[in-house]
UniProtKB/TrEMBL annotation:
Protein name in the entry: Riboflavin biosynthesis protein RibBA
Species, as recorded: Haloechinothrix aidingensis
EC number(s) on file: 4.1.99.12, 3.5.4.25
GO MF: 3,4-dihydroxy-2-butanone-4-phosphate synthase activity; GTP binding; GTP cyclohydrolase II activity; magnesium ion binding; manganese ion binding; zinc ion binding
Keywords: GTP-binding, Hydrolase, Lyase, Magnesium, Manganese, Metal-binding, Multifunctional enzyme, Nucleotide-binding, Riboflavin biosynthesis, Zinc
Record's cofactor remark: Binds 2 divalent metal cations per subunit. Magnesium or manganese.
Cofactor(s) it depends on: Mg(2+); Mn(2+); Zn(2+)
GO biological process terms, semicolon-separated: riboflavin biosynthetic process
Span list, region Disordered: 1-26
Length: 433
């Protein structure tokens, strides 16, 4: 099954702001797992929309496993790293995984020794601890059994935002064996508990409630996934830049920084530029991207010091080239750039600026003077540790083809375009009545 890296949030913010639920910080969940406490982990409404009790596998006891059996469906799974499942000779349950969310069940197991029938809370706790044991080998497990191991994908929630990966990530962050026992919380009638019910449940039992989306954001903010792979001189019409190439270990996406002079230190003139093939390479007049790219390189060269960070996978504010062309079709029929994305069922802005902060940190850049009209870029850098000492507008010439696009960026995406004349009387050549 092909697994795609997790898309960034459209508008990152404080934990819980998407639903109004006061989620706990992932760090509290990590601390509670390390202390042997159970937590509740929930995913997004557009995924499974469920909550699981999560406990570090090495902390399993008859008492806490019994609690999990009473308050969940009773099916207890043990997420672990793929390489550990391989080492324990735990193959996939079926040759072809037809689960809609790709949940990677292995063959079920019991501990080979120290249990009765395998179904009691005490027996299952022993099996769960056996799965977490660093010295456990394949002969210590019988197949089939009453506990269901799960295989977590490499890179965890950054690749797949599921409970399987969240549990393994949280255990790893807690410094424990990267395995947990999880069970889906249900109502007394066996139906899946709603988010308000999950919140009430967690508070009643003194358990932290952590959102997978917040865990994804925490990992993006605190972990480095980019590696510098190559660099070379790049003479341009604006001067001689240095091209520095990076690759993301999770997505495989390649990014590049064009540096001029020494970009290390404070107050560095920086442009974070989102890939736009149509504007940057094809010379499209529907947007101002190509003109901004050129203006930024010219400004940095004139400054004598700075960097342009070119982020791939940002085409169409993160929706991709083909989807952007579909959005253009809707814009030709009268929709603006925001409504076109919404009509297609796509996020208004799916860009992630974490790669830019990693690149700037690698270059030694601490604070920047940001060449941008977009407040989201400023926030995306400052929230991840790159100080923005000032934001410098990057205004380019309007055209009859991009004026409605620029108005939408100003009025609906809150770009700072006050210095640009966007008189509504100017005809829009990209909208047909």
């Amino acid at each position: 099954m092909s697994i795609q890296p997790v898309a960034a949030r459209a508008h990152p913010g404080v934990p819980g702001e998407r639903t109004g639920v006061p989620f706990d910080q992932p760090q509290r969940g990590v601390a509670d797992l390390a202390a042997g406490r159970m937590i509740v982990v929930v995913d997004d409404e557009d995924r499974e929309n469920e909550g699981d009790i999560v406990l570090a596998a090495e902390m399993a006891t008859a008492a806490n496993v019994g609690f999990m059996v009473r308050h969940t469906s009773g099916v207890l799974c043990v997420p672990m790293e793929e390489r550990r499942a391989d080492a324990l000779h735990l193959p996939p349950m079926t040759p072809v995984n037809e689960d809609s969310k790709g949940t990677a069940y292995t063959v079920s197991v019991d501990a080979a020794d120290g249990i009765g029938t395998g179904i009691s809370a005490a027996d299952r706790a022993h099996t769960i601890r056996t799965l977490a044991g660093r010295a456990t080998d394949p002969a210590d497990l019988n197949r089939p059994g009453h506990v269901f191991p799960l295989r977590a994908v490499e890179h965890g929630v950054l690749r797949r935002p599921g409970h399987t990966e969240a549990a393994v990530d949280l255990a790893r962050l807690a410094g424990l064996s990267p395995a947990c026992v999880i069970g889906e919380i249900v109502r007394d009638d066996g139906s899946v508990a709603s988010l308000p019910e999950l919140t009430t449940f967690a508070r009643q039992h003194g358990m932290a409630i952590v959102s997978i989306a917040d865990l994804v954001e925490h990992r993006r903010r605190t972990e480095r996934t980019l590696t510098r792979h190559a660099e070379a001189d790049l003479p341009t019409r604006y001067g001689s830049f240095r091209a520095v190439g990076y690759q993301d270990a999770v997505s495989g996406t390649e990014h590049v920084a064009l540096t001029y002079g020494d970009p290390a230190g404070d107050g560095v003139l920086v442009r974070v530029h989102s890939e736009c093939l149509t504007g940057d390479a094809f010379g499209s007049l529907r947007c101002d991207c190509g003109d901004q790219f050129d203006a930024a390189l010219a400004a940095i060269a004139h400054e004598g010091r700075g960097a342009l960070v070119y982020l791939r996978d940002h085409e169409g504010r993160g929706i991709g080239l083909t989807q952007k062309l579909r959005a253009y079709q809707l814009q030709d029929a009268g929709a603006d750039t925001v409504d076109a994305n919404v009509t297609l069922g796509l996020p208004v802005d799916a860009r992630d600026y974490a790669p830019a902060t990693q690149i700037l940190a690698d270059l030694g850049t601490r604070t920047v003077r940001l060449l941008s009209n977009n407040p989201a870029k400023e926030a995306g850098l400052s929230e991840r540790g790159i100080g923005v000492v000032s934001r410098q507008p990057l205004h380019t010439a309007r055209t009859e083809y991009n004026i409605r696009y620029l108005r939408t960026k100003r009025d609906r995406l809150h770009h700072h375009l006050a210095g640009l004349d966007l008189d509504p009387a100017t005809p829009d050549r990209c909208a047909h009545p």
